Amino acid sequence: MAHGFRPLFHLLRPHLGSVALVLGASAAASALALAQPWLAKRLIDDGLIARQMPVVAATCALILGAALLALGVGAFNRWHYLTLSGKVLFALRERVFGHLQRLPPTYFARRSTGEILSRIDGDVAEVQRFVVDTVLATVNAVLVLAGTLAVMAALAPQLLAPAFVLLPLQIVVARRLRPRMERLVRRLRERNGEMSGFLVHGLQSMKLIQAMGGEARDAARFSALNRHYLDDLRRAELFSAVAGGIPGLLNGLAAAAVFLAGGLLVMEGTVTVGALVAFTLYLGRAVGPVNTLLGLILAQRRARVSLDRVMEILDEPVAVENPPVPLALPATAAGAIRLDAVTFSYGGGGPVFSGLDAVIPAGAKVGLVGASGIGKSTLVDLLHRHYDPDRGRILLDGVDLRHLDLAELRRRIAVVAQDSPVVAGTIADNIRLAAPDADDRTVERAAALAEIGHLGLDTLVGERGATLSGGERQRLAIARALLLDPLVLVLDEAVSAVDLESGRRIARTIDTLFHHRTRIVISHHPDALAGAGLILELTPAGLRPHAAEAVA
Ligand SMILES: Nc1ncnc2c1ncn2[C@@H]1O[C@H](COP(=O)(O)OP(=O)(O)O)[C@@H](O)[C@H]1O
Ligand SMILES: [Mg+2]
What we know:
Layout: H1 6-12, H2 16-49, H3 53-100, H4 105-110, H5 113-155, H6 160-164, H7 167-204, H8 206-211, H9 215-268, H10 273-314, E1 337-345, E2 351-360, E3 365-369, H11 376-383, E4 391-396, E5 399-400, H12 406-412, E6 413-416, E7 425-426, H13 427-432, H14 440-449, E8 460-461, H15 470-484, E9 488-492, H16 500-513, E10 518-522, H17 526-529, E11 534-539, E12 542-546, H18 548-551
Parallel strand pairs: 3-10, 3-11, 6-9, 9-10
Antiparallel strand pairs: 1-2, 1-4, 4-5, 7-8, 11-12
The structure holds adenosine-5'-diphosphate (ADP) and magnesium ion.
């Protein structure tokens, strides 16, 4: 394991106060639990056998008092424990989510959403359960066990040997079971990820599956996944039950040994009846902690599997870093862009382009054309710093993009992306993504200019905009760009999905509204490119100026 459990300590460190509180309460609860058999011994030897009613009454009062106190301590403990547990869980989940927010689009393109989801959800919860439940239970078990052993030794030291003669055997058995358990658990977690992956994918593409008549095939795959999951679950549970049952069996044997040896001692008169009863009660209480400690071996395997799966996300390198000390754009910034020997590859494959040079003057409308798949959208992603060039640099008004504050860069350069993603919420929510503080009037104006206002600002759009047409999604993205009020506007095939007439109208609106801003228009529609001062063509050989008139 690459990480060991060190990351877990970092999770607990901010909460050491709470940890101490919970441990203190556990210790108090353990002490109260330890008192009970001792009181039983007193009741039998000094009360019942000695025929002392006042001792019986007083001991009963003490037993009641201890039970009431245990109730209070238990409630206190549970409350603080829950708070601690929740804080650890959410801190880890927030850390994973925060890291995911910084990962490049490629990361998400190459993984199934369900798989990532199962790590944030199931695996993080597993790690949290280990950190909080198991670690606390272990400390508690050690305390109870130590206390119990001390009292047992005081009661009848001769009986310790028969009580714990089987312990080494139990430990050996538990250690043997460990690697097998780890394999079973990892497979179960993977099955879980496959299942989530299948569901997320299947739900998102339900319409496509229906159109292709693939329902029966998907249903069969789903049921196969379920079957495999159930098979593995049963295997793991059976194994876990057997592995968990062995300590109980061995403990039963130990109890029998104690009664045999203890019976002889009572008959000899070296041990009182009360002491033997108390001793066996303590032995019963030692079973729990011993099982907890043995179970810990299995629990930590489970947790390691999950921890590794969570750490895989946290170890994923971030593609772009926000500069520690960002440079400011010059006061005269007007949206001039320069590409300086830009080379980029997605990793794995060859470069998408290499050594691109270009100058896009401030305030100009520039067309970008090129065959499909040549890298136009990739270039836009570089402009928005979803990735950084492998070599070379991109400058905005003379400042390398890598030196600008990321949020400012993405405000100054607005991108209307090819696929125009939409978030669940109202139309207004979607427009406000660009500027959360924008007032209603501004949002309305942007919606009207982008010709989306007639849909109603409070209309809910489904998840991923399923209730909007492609053209409506693009107009929504244009409304967002209008709200941003950027220096540079990039339209990546932005009006490809609207009808010709609306496309023309929107192109004109954009040209009017962004008249003095830099516009980079990727399109194959001559209308969208009309009025461009410069057309650049992306070819395998690089960026080449294209005669503007040829397209217009
Ligand atoms: N996330 C990605 N990971 C790997 N390759 C990618 C990724 N996105 C795009 N590509 C590849 O990069 C090339 C350029 O794609 P793209 O920029 O979308 O082209 P265009 O917008 O010009 O049609 C294509 O060959 C495409 O398959
Ligand atoms: Mg594209």
